[in-house]
Structure formats: C-alpha cells, structure tokens
C-alpha cells in the first residue's frame, strides 16, 4: 500500500446499502467482505494507515463514558455467558466425538454454507450487531473455510482456553494485528479507555457468536438468543451531549447515526429480561413481573430482576461484577475481572490442577477431563464411553487403598502439568485394574489417554524403556493435603 494513503475515517457510519441478508445472504456477505477488504487492506500489505477521529467524536465518547461503562458491563456479562456455553458444548465434542475431524472432513460447499448461515444468524441477534462485524476483518467465508476449516478450529480452541486463571467471569479475546494497532493509535485513545474496551468487547462478541452458530448449525440445533432492551434515556442523552459540545449540526449528525443503527435493528426481537438469569416473561412462570433495582433506578440505570432469588445471587456472584459493587453508584473504571470472582488460594482446585508447564499445551480432550473432575471432586479419573454406552464412568480409588491413591494423584498431577509420558503410563497401570473390575474397555481407555496427552501408551510394563518416576517430598505433601482436604469437605 502506498504510504501516502489518507487516514481511515473513524466515524459512526458504514454503508447500509446492502442486499437483504434473508433474501440474498450470499450477496449480503459479499458486500460486507468487500467493505472489510477495502477498510483493512493494510493488513495484507504490511502497512497500517493512521486513524482519524474528529475532535467532536473524541469529546462525545469521553462525556458519555458513564453510559458506556454500564453498556460495557451488560455486554461483558452476555459475552462471558456465551463463551461459557461454547466451552460446555464444544469440549466434550472435541474430546470424545471427533468434532475437529468431522468439521475438517466436510465437503467445502457444505462447510461454506454453514459459515454463511452462522454469519447471518450472528448479525440478526442483537441491536447493532451488524456494526460489530466492523472490527472483525478476518471473519470471511474464505478465511474460515480455508485449509479444511482450520481457522474455525483455531478460534474455537482460543475460546475454550487452557489458561487456568481464566474464569467464567472473564472474556477470552482473539488477537488481530490491525485491531491491536488501532487500539494503540492516539486518535483512538483520545476517545477514552471505556470506548476502547467496548470496541474490543464488540469484536469478541461477534466472533464468539459466529463460532457458536457454526456449532449449532453444524449439529442442526436451534437456540434463539433474546436481547434485553437498552435503557431508553441513552438516545436522548447522546443527542443532548452532541448539541452541548458541537451545536445543532453535530446533534443532527448523531441523530442520523442513531437512525442508521435503528435500521439494523428493525427485525430484531428486543425484550425485557432478568439481568441475572436472562429469561424474558415468555420463559418465566405466568404472573411474573420484572422489577427494577430501586437504588439503580434512582440514578437512571435500569437493572431488572424476575425474583428475589436472582437479585440475591447477582448481589453476591454477578458476572462480571457482583451487583453489590455497583448498586446505586456511578460505574468507575475497573479491571476486566472483579476480585470477588477470583478463586481463593490455595484451594482444593489449585491443589488438584497445577498450572501447565510453558512448553506443554493441554489438548481439548485433557481440558474436558479436567472440567469433569472439577465437577466431580470425589472422582480420581473419568473414563468416557462412546456410543452405545450411555454413561461416562468416574473411577475412585477406595480410601482403604490410600497409598495407591496417593501414588495415582501424584502421577496425575505430573501428567496434568507436563504430559510426562512415564507418569501417564504409570497412571494407566493403576487405572487398568479398575477398568477390568468395572467391565470397561482397556483399548478405549488407551485411546482416551493417547488423545488427552499425545503420548504413546505402552500396555505391557516390561516393554517400557523409561524408569518409573521418583516422587519428591513436596509432591507427597501435596497429595496428603489434597486427600485431607477432600475428606474435610466430605468428597472422599
């Protein structure tokens, strides 16, 4: 690209002269991809053009930060729950149902059709969602479908994440060089910190929705998303601020931009929903009324609850922040995750699951194993049975066999931490006796461990060349602490 290329005009509006996505979805998508190519052409040329945000836009964003803080809070809540749904749905399918192989083996025409359907469904779900695609230059049919659809699998694995510090109250973001450049641009920064966070949140929400709808479309599942109505005072307030800082002409410009956004929302079903459980009246018991938090209503903020129970739970454990931190108060700048949602340390889970070594990447199958063990603390290992077997089986070594259980837990911890082949083989030796007692398939268990750790399982110990692991005093201390903690919690 010529380095004399003028700055990109960072403004409210993109063209709304697009084909109808319901009547002509392919043409609608081509229109979007053409705009994305033109707007982000610097990506392919190694040159990032500067941004241009007018002083009026910068000031408008700064003065509207309090409204944006509240909007950001609601968007983050929805995004975190969406990514949690993706993890819960995709992990077992990646681990046990060969999702990755199934997706990559699809006929290219079928795969492209699934991607197109997902893009259409994503923009139809939320007010302004079509504008969110502005920040996602990589979401094209060609990019998502090339190399047998590898990029979709990569996105899915990023959202699933192996980072043990990521909780359900923290969104996982997808990096992009062009977007990272934009966030560092002085013109962008001048619009305020919260504005930058909202752009990042908008981008991640759209990417996550497309990933979600690819999964649902692939498995022929219908799952409509209901979007809560935004507070009505926002529109009038934005116009008033615009008039204050730029006069009637600026106010008319903002009004036109808001009208443009409303065109995108014309077919969107917007309903009042409970802030905590996200159910609208059609999914609540007859006679239920949504009631607003009184203290928040007093400062012009609308947060609705369907019951005292939901209000109490949101007060204590709300995502991304417990309501007690913001109730009736202006929302100040805050880190992406509240300290109230951080796990206690040291905890039972931190004893059970160490951080992975820097050079060890946990597979989706192993992440699924860890997830199931977190939900079943009295189980030492899960064996996943494929069809036609109806249930997964949790293996627990009896308390009467404490020395063997201590050994297994130390082996498991090493395997979780580094994928150590010797530890995995020794762990298999312990499991094999319980597999036989339960009538479970040894060969299926070997396949499962291989998929989880990516190592070769040598069934016969005499054929192994590696030496049995020596445990250090710290590992033995950890194992005893873990078993003692289990017993104190009644999960033994």
From TrEMBL:
Residues 1-26 are annotated as: Disordered. Pfam families: zf-MYND. PROSITE patterns: ZF_MYND_2 (PS50865). Residues 274-327 form the MYND-type domain. Keywords: Metal-binding, Zinc, Zinc-finger. Gene3D superfamilies: 6.10.140.2220. The keyword Transport does not apply. InterPro entries: Znf_MYND. GO terms for molecular function: zinc ion binding. Residues 15-26 have a biased composition (Basic and acidic residues). This is MYND-type domain-containing protein. It comes from Hypholoma sublateritium (strain FD-334 SS-4). The lineage of its organism: Eukaryota, Fungi, Dikarya, Basidiomycota, Agaricomycotina.
């Amino acid at each position: 690209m010529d380095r004399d290329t003028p700055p990109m005009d960072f403004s409210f509006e993109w063209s709304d002269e697009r084909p109808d996505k319901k009547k002509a979805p392919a043409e609608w998508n081509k229109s979007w991809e053409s705009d994305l190519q033109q707007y982000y052409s610097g990506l392919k040329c190694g040159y990032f053009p500067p941004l241009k945000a007018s002083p009026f836009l910068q000031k408008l964003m700064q003065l509207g930060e309090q409204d944006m803080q509240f909007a950001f809070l609601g968007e983050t809540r929805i995004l975190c729950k969406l990514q949690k749904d993706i993890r819960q749905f995709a992990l077992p399918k990646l681990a046990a149902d060969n999702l990755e192989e199934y997706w990559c083996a699809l006929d290219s025409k079928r795969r492209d059709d699934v991607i197109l359907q997902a893009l259409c469904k994503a923009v139809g779900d939320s007010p302004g969602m079509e504008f969110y695609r502005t920040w996602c230059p990589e979401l094209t049919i060609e990019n998502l479908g090339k190399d047998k659809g590898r990029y979709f699998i990569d996105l899915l694995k990023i959202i699933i994440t192996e980072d043990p510090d990521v909780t359900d109250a923290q969104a996982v973001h997808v990096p992009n060089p062009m977007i990272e450049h934009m966030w560092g641009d002085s013109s962008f920064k001048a619009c305020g910190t919260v504005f930058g966070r909202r752009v990042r949140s908008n981008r991640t929400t759209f990417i996550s929705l497309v990933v979600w709808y690819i999964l649902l479309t692939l498995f022929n599942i219908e799952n409509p998303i209901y979007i809560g109505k935004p507070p009505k005072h926002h529109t009038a307030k934005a116009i008033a601020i615009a008039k204050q800082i730029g006069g009637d002409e600026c106010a008319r410009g903002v009004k036109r931009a808001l009208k443009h956004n409303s065109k995108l929302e014309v077919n969107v079903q917007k309903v009042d929903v409970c802030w905590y459980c996200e159910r609208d009246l059609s999914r609540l018991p007859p006679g239920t009324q949504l009631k607003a938090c009184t203290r928040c209503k007093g400062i012009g903020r609308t947060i609705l609850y369907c019951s005292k129970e939901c209000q109490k739970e949101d007060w204590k454990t709300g995502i991304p922040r417990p309501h007690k931190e913001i109730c009736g108060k202006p929302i100040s700048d805050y880190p992406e995750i509240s300290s109230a949602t951080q796990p206690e340390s040291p905890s039972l889970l931190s004893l059970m699951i160490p951080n992975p070594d820097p050079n060890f990447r946990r597979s989706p199958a192993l992440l699924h194993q860890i997830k199931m063990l977190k939900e079943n603390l009295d189980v030492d290992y899960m064996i996943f049975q494929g069809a036609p077997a109806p249930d997964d089986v949790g293996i627990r070594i009896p308390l009467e066999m404490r020395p063997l259980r201590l050994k297994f837990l130390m082996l498991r911890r090493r395997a979780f931490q580094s994928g150590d082949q010797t530890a995995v083989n020794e762990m298999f030796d312990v499991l094999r006796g319980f597999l036989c007692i339960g009538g479970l398939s040894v060969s299926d268990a070997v396949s499962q461990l291989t998929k989880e750790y990516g190592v070769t399982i040598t069934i016969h110990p005499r054929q192994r060349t590696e030496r049995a692991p020596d445990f250090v005093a710290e590992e033995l201390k950890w194992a005893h602490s873990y078993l003692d903690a289990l017993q104190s919690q009644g999960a033994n």
